[in-house]
Amino acid sequence: MSRLLKCTHMMFAAMLACALFVNAARAEVLALTGGTVHPVTGPVIAKGTVLVDGKKITAVGAGLAVPAGARVIDCTGKHVYPGFVAANTALGLQEISTIQGADDTQETGNVNPNQRAEVMYNPDSDFLAVTRLNGITTVLSVPGGGSVRGTSALMHLEGWTQEDITVRAPVGLHVQWPNMTPVRAFFELRSDEEQAKARDSATQAIADAFNDARAYWKARDAEAAAGVPKHDADVRWDAMRKVLKGDVPVIFHADALNQIRAVLRFCDEQKLTNVILLGGYDAWRVADELKRRDIAVIVAGVLSVPNRGYEAYDQAFTVAGKLSRAGLRFCIADEGGGFAAANARNLPHHAAMAVAFGLDADEALKAVTIYPARILGADAEIGSIEPGKRADLQITDGDPLLVATHCEQVLIDGKLQTMESRQTQLFKKYDGRPRGPKARRR
């Protein structure tokens, strides 16, 4: 009898726990009212309203009725923008660069197409909250190391599990194209001959990876025929199936003109048609060819010094504007990699600098919202304020591309984010420290 009673209590406790979980997870209806709404894909709406039910935007417009029971967020005098999309980061893949176990940006080996950023992503990284506080809600996390680096994933900056956080994966297979000419700088200790040998080795490794993957899948597909033996599985070539079929783009990291031309030749040899260029410092020099091939460019860093000593100081500042005027599909990101992870929050300032040097202001806003969403195949879900899309939003007191503007509230999947990070916590801690009679006045 006591055992039956105990089982009954356990079942009741389990049912109560489930009920509490369902109630906690129940979608909250939000109404952002009175603010200036910037859908990005449509005209600005003065005194607009954005209705959010759970994770989705349900309505956008002026004079909308607020549903009964909705939580009203008064945005009077404020601006509502879509969350920024950072299209080239190592966020979630690196925490402390000097600790090997906390750094997934430099994997061993030269050919790692089986790396998956969404699996390596750390949802507890302190960098995420720091980045989120400047209006960035989604990032493309890119694995590093070697020539063929694995597949990137579009990840949210808030969530508990891989399923919660992943917006889209895989997004693209990343290939680092080597320098085609020797680098002469204080940090390069190899001779010209050694660099040329490393270049040839890298390009051959890339070609071998695609050729081997194609041969592997030809053999695997032939297994359906009678008498054809089974072949051993290889996780590297399994990971390239969608790439070879053109379902997933190849994202080539290349900046210099000779790199880009080498990439285009390689695409012709391998018959690759679904291609994205990441970096693109010299992409404007072959804009017509890139446009003809419909190759989009992710401009990796506007706030950069010139790559060559003879170039004008503003060379990197003008790349986005040149691509826009040439009619190319493009977006703006930062330089990516582990070193830039802590500064991923500066994405809107890259766009602002591009505006100062020739890019249209509306195009700049799109270049960090809807354009990266389109290029990365997620524009049906993120990048603008439209019914049916994820409620990834930011509320600001002005133009979010300006340094002086404050991002006052961020929503990810319709959830209001706590506007705190390790940096704000440290500021409060030391701002409240005991002060002696000789301390500087606040």
Portion in helices: 25-40%
For the largest beta-sheet, the strand count, sense and barrel status come to:
8 strands, mixed
Structural class: alpha/beta
Tally of contiguous helical segments: 14
Shape: globular
Brief sketch in words of this structure:
The chain has 442 residues and is α/β, with parallel strands linked by helices. It is built from 14 helices and 18 strands.
Describe this structure in words.
The structure is a single chain. The longest helix has 31 residues. By secondary structure, the chain is of the alpha/beta class. The termini are far apart. About 2% of the residues have low confidence. It is built from 14 helices and 18 strands.
Topology readout:
Layout: H1 2-25, E1 29-37, E2 45-53, E3 56-62, E4 71-74, E5 79-82, E6 84-89, H2 117-120, H3 126-132, E7 136-141, E8 148-151, E9 153-156, H4 162-165, E10 166-168, E11 173-176, H5 192-222, H6 235-238, H7 241-245, E12 250-254, H8 257-270, E13 275-279, H9 287-293, E14 296-300, H10 315-325, E15 330-333, H11 347-356, H12 361-366, H13 370-375, E16 393-396, E17 407-412, E18 415-416, H14 422-431
Parallel strand pairs: 1-4, 1-5, 6-7, 11-12, 12-13, 13-14, 14-15
Antiparallel strand pairs: 1-2, 2-3, 5-16, 7-9, 8-11, 9-10, 16-17, 17-18
Helix pairs in contact: 10-11
